[in-house]
Amino acid sequence: MNFRPLVTMAKCAAFFAIISLASCKKDGTTGSNDNNAANLSDSSTAADNMYYDVLNNAFVGFEDNISVWSSSAPRGMQNATLSTGTIASTPLGCAIYTIDDSIPDSYPKTLTLDFGTGCTSADGILRKGKLTYVFTAPILVPGATATVTFDHYEVSGYKLQGAYSITNNSSEVNGISITTQVTNGIITYPSGTNYHYAHNKTYTLTAGSSTPYNMADDIWSVTGNSSISVPGGSSIVFTTQTPLVKAVICHNVSAGIVSFVYDNSVSGTIDFGNGDCDNQAVVKVGNIEKTITLW
């Protein structure tokens, strides 16, 4: 595949719709170790979703303000001309953008997305607080990185903290590839429960690169690892066993398996299926096997 910045630009919008991996609505752990492992594995998928939303916002926020980043920056499906203010026609249209662009075409640049005390975007997600991104280059350029800070930021009632980084690893050899890393993460669930969270994930485009303006045929392969724990309590570590398959036309992951280890003693898996576009996955741990409904 020939890597082209234009293709990458066009693909960025797809992240908003396709990166939200499975998320189950459970928040507690009770019963045997096997049950505890199954329940905590369910809860961890919600954490995955909320932190993935930060990557979504980076791409959408960048594209909404494409004219600011560079006079020669690759352009995609949208060519927003406003560098600050409300842009109602985009998925994050209710956010207020502020860009530090004191030296045109110079980096780093800082982008702040302010969702105020509550802002429901065009995609129906309620966000609060601020996200601030510092870009070393246009995020769609291979080698570019971005760091993210949270200021009382919440998404769908989940409060996020920690250090978040984004790296564009795209190349002629590897094609379009993005890596995200979360360290020292803390996610507060709507119930008030706090979890420590970390992840290192890579998203690689496996289909659709030849049609840069047709998102419907895009398919992403997702690999990496994550962990979640209750402060002073149980923990669970996830590793991709079989790469996850995420097609743009499907809301959830449709295939792939992640394995997990609970408290360094109990092992299990989450199987996302055989490619059918549905909202089901199967958790297996010990003698327990149950179907969960994805977010």
Compose a concise summary of this entry.
With 295 residues, the protein is α+β, with helices and mostly antiparallel strands. Helix content is 17%, strand content 43%.
Task: Draw up the topology in text.
Elements: H1 5-18, H2 33-64, H3 66-69, E1 85-86, E2 96-100, E3 109-114, E4 119-120, E5 126-135, E6 145-155, E7 158-168, E8 177-188, E9 194-207, E10 219-229, E11 235-247, E12 255-262, E13 266-274, E14 280-285, E15 288-293
Antiparallel strand pairs: 1-2, 2-3, 3-5, 4-5, 5-6, 6-7, 7-8, 8-9, 9-10, 10-11, 11-12, 12-13, 13-14, 14-15
Helix pairs in contact: 1-2
Description of the molecule:
The protein starts with a helix and ends with a strand. It has one domain. It is built from three helices and 15 strands. Mean pLDDT is 78; it is low at 1-31 and 71-89. Helices cover 17% and strands 43% of the residues. The chain has 295 residues and is of the alpha+beta class. It is globular. The chain has helices at residues 5-18, 33-64, 66-69; strands at residues 85-86, 96-100, 109-114, 119-120, 126-135, 145-155, 158-168, 177-188, 194-207, 219-229, 235-247, 255-262, 266-274, 280-285, 288-293. The protein has a 15-stranded antiparallel β-sheet that branches. The longest helix is centred in the N-terminal third of the chain and has 32 residues, at 33-64.
